Amino acid sequence: MAPIDDAVAEVELLQPGEHFLYRAVARKFNISNSTLTRRHRGRQKPQHAQEASRQKLNPQQEEELVQYINNLTKRALPPTRAMIQNFASHIALEPYNVQPEHMYNIDKKGFMIGILGGSKRVFSRQLWEEKRVTATLQDGS
């Protein structure tokens, strides 16, 4: 266990009403007094708990996203960030809430089909090192 967890455990083992100083316990475990105080009083969660609460995808959904990226890359179409974001929001059951004021129409004049700007693609490092993905790809027209 981490020193902070050991210190919190020691404080929690004390009898109710038993006098102690956070500073003394913190010094014993060589940790910050304020961190120990916040953690023991429940104002601060352990770092792994904070990280887990910020994740939008669970491990199974993350694996599904990786498979999606790998499958598209094998078909010579490494996904863009937008493609990944759309797929991730779909599997996380968080569809975009597009408001009418954010929609627009476009006609065909001046719209070049199949010409991409410098779009970034996502693929595995292993495929890059094996030179199976070597250059920017463009969609056909």
TrEMBL record:
DNA-binding among keywords: yes
Please tell me the species this chain comes from.
Answer: Ophiobolus disseminans
Keywords noted in UniProt: DNA-binding
The record, for Pfam families, names:
HTH_Tnp_Tc5
Region Disordered: start-end pairs: 36-61
Q: Where is the composition biased (Basic residues)?
A: 37-46
Residues in HTH CENPB-type domain copies: 58-95
Asked if the keyword RNA-binding belongs to this entry, the reply reads: no
InterPro entries cross-referenced by the UniProt entry: HTH_CenpB_DNA-bd_dom
Report what the protein is called. Answer: HTH CENPB-type domain-containing protein
Biased composition, class Polar residues, residue ranges:
50-60
Which GO MF terms does the UniProt record name? DNA binding
